């Protein structure tokens, strides 16, 4: 039973990392599409401009 719990935790970490990778890639693509115009990128992503800046900082963009 202990092994199953450990596998589940590892799977959760992998899924989280995959979601982070997808989100980072999406932000990069939208920024390219908007020629780096962040207000438009935030609008297209459906997030606030402050949120976009925080995510960019977190992902090193």
Automatic annotation (TrEMBL):
<dbReference type="InterPro" id="IPR002197">
    <property type="entry name" value="HTH_Fis"/>
</dbReference>
<dbReference type="Pfam" id="PF02954">
    <property type="entry name" value="HTH_8"/>
</dbReference>
<dbReference type="InterPro" id="IPR009057">
    <property type="entry name" value="Homeodomain-like_sf"/>
</dbReference>
<feature type="domain" description="DNA binding HTH">
    <location>
        <begin position="22"/>
        <end position="59"/>
    </location>
</feature>
<dbReference type="GO" id="GO:0043565">
    <property type="term" value="F:sequence-specific DNA binding"/>
</dbReference>
<protein>
    <recommendedName>
        <fullName>DNA binding HTH domain-containing protein</fullName>
    </recommendedName>
</protein>
């Amino acid at each position: 039973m202990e092994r199953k719990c450990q596998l589940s935790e590892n799977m959760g970490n992998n899924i989280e990392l995959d979601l982070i990778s997808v989100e980072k890639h999406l932000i990069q693509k939208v920024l390219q599409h908007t020629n780096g115009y962040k207000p438009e990128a935030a609008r297209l992503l459906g997030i606030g401009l402050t949120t976009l800046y925080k995510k960019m900082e977190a992902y090193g963009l």
